[in-house]
Predict the structure.
Amino acid sequence: MNRNEFTEGITHILKLVRTEYGLTQDEMAVIIGISKKSLVESEKGRRPLGWTESVALANIFSDSSVLQSNFGGDINELITAIAFDNIEVDYPKTMGGKIWWKVVKEDRGYRIQQNIVSNHYRLLDADNRRLFFSFHLKEVEEYLNNI
């Protein structure tokens, strides 16, 4: 999936997400940061949402069953994958987990840690660079196994 396919998909289900949350067009426009006129045009299929509007909607309403069923679960991972597609990312070093993190697993110089507040997991390399993150330990372990 690329950015255009993502924004088309979000635009297509915009009204469904809005009605799922019981929001008026005025309220939804304020929430995602566009004018009511733009929202109406998008709901009628006359104006596609842009990338930033689509990302805002998807992040704000990431718990939406409409979004999850249309995009296959965790929307934030999909957004990250699309945003970094064909771009080599050199994540900045972390503090290595001295605060808020506990080590779950160590393997070949890599560490899987879990955040003690949010309970999400991350994979760090030997230089404390974050390579992957997820709320699902199995996903992080699979990523590690494929390195």
The longest strand covers residues 101-107. The two ends are 23 Å apart (CA to CA). Residues 47 and 105 are 48 Å apart (CA to CA).
